[in-house]
């Protein structure tokens, strides 16, 4: 990390944390500046508007997630491995989801009520995840079936985050991941045979 990028990265990390824990509307530029150890005027050097900051937060979350999901992919890997990485990621995030809900889903929901342009930005990562799942399922399913499977699984994961947060119970996430793995056995029969072999 270069000296120039370090303060910017601190700002993005602070904003990401505050947007997830307080919400976008309840977080001011001054809050982000304070949390990142910068003066408000200095923060403006990196981000002119709160929308610029939101875009940077979504981009950083997307990059981190894509590094975790796409970078480890092996040529010719099966759909189960591809989908499994996302399920592993969600399982590892269970405590955070139970405390604050899904940071991306929460932003998309909040901004969808007030600002179409910002909503599109925040919802983009969820739609990329749906496309990621679709590509995995499309290896073994017809297009329409793959679309439904991707939608089903993403909706299940988002629902798990909402219920876990409502109950403050990460076990909800773990149960839903376990059920999703059982469901995968029904839609990816070759994966079931390998798992039981």
UniProtKB/TrEMBL annotation:
InterPro entries: Homeodomain-like_sf (IPR009057), HTH_TetR (IPR001647), Tet_transcr_reg_TetR-rel_C_sf (IPR036271), YxaF_TetR_C (IPR054156). Residues 5-65 form the HTH tetR-type domain. Residues 28-47 bind DNA. PROSITE patterns: HTH_TETR_2. It holds the Pfam family TetR_N. This is AcrR family transcriptional regulator. Keywords: DNA-binding, Transcription, Transcription regulation. It comes from the Bacteria.
